[in-house]
Specification:
Length: 183
C-alpha cells in the first residue's frame, strides 16, 4: 500500500491527480488529508472532498493518533506528502509527530521506507532549506513541485502530470502516459 498525504499548501491538485493515477493502475492507496488541505481543496478544486476520499482504498483521519497507521508494525511501502506545507515539513524534520501525517512520516523514516516530500512553496527561507536537508539526510526524498517544460505542456494538466510522473519515477512505477522525457 502507498500512503498519500495532502497537506495545507497550494497545489492540492498534484495529490488528487496522483490518487486518480494510482486508482487507474489498481494500486492500493491510503489517504490522509489535513484540515487545512480540506479548506484548500474547496478553494482550488471543483471536486467534492467525499469524492476525493473515495479515490483511495482506505481513508485515515489526519488527527487520529490512535489509528493503526501510526505504528511501525502497520505495513505500507511508501508515503508521499503532496503537496507538503512548510509546517508539515518542519514537524517531520524535527521529529514532531503531532498528527497522523507527521507521525506516519516519522514511522516511514524510522522503518527505512520510502518517504517522498513534494514541497509547494516559493520563495524558500533558509529554515525551509535546512528542514529539507534534515529529511534528505535521513533518507527522505525531496521532490519540489518544479515542473520542467521540455515536454511542451499544453495546459495546467500537463504541468501537474509532469510532477506526478516524477513521483512515479521515484517509486519505480512504470507509466507510459506520464513519461517526463521522450526519447
Amino acid at each position: 500500500m502507498i500512503i498519500i498525504a495532502i497537506t495545507g499548501a497550494s497545489g492540492v491538485s498534484y495529490g488528487v491527480r496522483l490518487l486518480k493515477v494510482f486508482k487507474e493502475m489498481n494500486i492500493k492507496t491510503g489517504l490522509l488529508i489535513s484540515k487545512t488541505a480540506e479548506t484548500i481543496i474547496k478553494y482550488e478544486l471543483n471536486e467534492k472532498l467525499e469524492d476525493i476520499k473515495k479515490l483511495s482504498y482506505r481513508y485515515y483521519e489526519s488527527d487520529d493518533l490512535t489509528s493503526s497507521i501510526n505504528s511501525g508494525s502497520f505495513k505500507f511501502d511508501s508515503l508521499i506528502i503532496v503537496p507538503c506545507s512548510m509546517k508539515t515539513l518542519s514537524a517531520i524534520a524535527n521529529g514532531y509527530g503531532n498528527n497522523t501525517i507527521t507521525r506516519v512520516a516519522d514511522v516511514t523514516l524510522k522503518e527505512k521506507r520510502t518517504l517522498v516530500i513534494v514541497p509547494r512553496e516559493t520563495p524558500l527561507r533558509t529554515a525551509h532549506i535546512k528542514n529539507m536537508l534534515k529529511i534528505s539526510e535521513e533518507g527522505g526524498i525531496i521532490l519540489p513541485a518544479m515542473p520542467g517544460f521540455y515536454n511542451n505542456p499544453r495546459d495546467i494538466n500537463d504541468i501537474i502530470d509532469f510532477i506526478v510522473g516524477k513521483i512515479l519515477n521515484i517509486l519505480k512505477i512504470e507509466n507510459k502516459q506520464l513519461k517526463s522525457w521522450k526519447v
